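Quick board copy: two proteins, each given as sequence then C-alpha cells.
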Amino acid sequence: MNFKKNAGIVLIILGIILTLDRTNEFKGIVSTIIYYLQEYWPLLITICGVSLLTTPQKTKKK
C-alpha cells in the first residue's frame, strides 16, 4: 500500500474514534488509546520500521 492510502485509513479511523468518544457509550475511549500509545510507542516504531523494510521497491522500466 502506498503512503496516501495508509494515511487516509488512519484519518478515517481517527475520525470515527473521536466521534465515538463524544457519545455516552464510549466515554473515555480516547484516554484508553492514549494510555496504550504511551506504554507501547516503541512497538509502533518497530512495526513502522519493519513495514518500510518489507515494502517492495518499484523499479523503473527503460
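And the next:
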Amino acid sequence: MGEWIDFDRWPECAGMERPGIVFEVQNEERQTMTTGCVIPLPLPFDWTSGPVRFRIVEQETPRHSEPLPPPSSAN
C-alpha cells in the first residue's frame, strides 16, 4: 500500500492511475472506501464528514460467485 496523501491532491489521481491499482479514501472518522479516480468523488450515504486522505492500493482479484441454483419446477 502507498503512503497516505492529503485529499487536497485528489485532482492529481488521474496521473497516478495504473492497471491493477485503485485508491483507498478515508474520512475524519476513519471510514474507508475503495474507488477509481472519479472527480468529483461521490461519497457513501453514511459518511458524515468529507474525505481527508487517500492512498494507492492493489485492486482485489475478482472472485467467481457460486452458480445459481436451477429453477424449481412449479406446476
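Board note added afterward: The radius of gyration is 18 Å.
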